Amino acid sequence: MAAVAAGAGVSVETVYKAFRNKAGLLKAVFDVAIVGDDDPVPMLQRDMVRRIKAEPDPRRKLSIYGEHLARAGPRAAAVQLLVRDAAASDVEAASVWDQMLAERLEGMTHFARDLAQEDHLRDGVSFEEARDVLWTLNSVELYELLVLRRGWTNARYGRWIADAMIAALLP
Predict the structure, then answer these.
(1) What's the CA gap between 149 and 95, in Å, rounded?
(2) Would the N or C end of the chain have less CB density within 10 A of its end CB?
(3) How far apart are CA 2 and CA 10, in angstroms?
(4) Alpha-carbon gap, residue 61 to 51, rounded angstroms
């Protein structure tokens, strides 16, 4: 917290007032990393989400989402992996990790519900299965494996994620 305060040119007390603790700071850093700005706009009201919802073609919806993941990965993955790894030995970090997982599940629940309500899902794919597939394919672990460990470009990763979602969910 002291290093953050020094870097921001504020007192340590100011950092604590703004974020309460290290976990609060971690979550705030992740929130900015995932969307690319610090505007107080909820994820479901973001332009990217509106674009996806407005897009009539389900394949294009999933492609737009894959493009978003490719753009967000370089900003957000390091933070996610830091929180995930710290969660193994730090109760506050574990709480943040659980919150991040729950928020991702909530977002993918909305996405799956929209796909189901618009009758885009392949026969035999339930809303629940779609939600779980989206949640899984959106995990930082896949980014870690393919981009960080195997050297894929972010663009290749985003296309692959979109293709995998399309293949798993759509007719």
Answers:
(1) 27
(2) C
(3) 9
(4) 8
Say if CB 15 and CB 7 are below 8 A apart: no
Against a cut of 0.70, is the pTM above it? yes
Q: Residue 116: name the closest of 128, 98, 101 by CA.
A: 128
What amino acid is encoded at 153 in this protein?
Answer: T
Nearest partner of 160 among 69, 53, 55, 48, judged by Cα? 69
Q: For 67-100, how does the pLDDT look when each residue is reduced to its tens digit (9 = 90+)?
A: 999 999 998 999 999 999 999 999 999 999 999 9
Question: Residue 155 belongs to what H/E stretch?
Answer: helix 154-169
Structure tokens at 153: 């470009």
How far, in Å, CA of 98 to CA of 103, rounded? 9
CA nearest to 72, candidates 107, 123, 96: 107
The type of residue at 143 is Y
d(CA 164, CA 103): 22
Q: Alpha-carbon Rg of the chain, whole angstroms?
A: 17
Residue in the structure block whose two tokens are 């897009």: 55
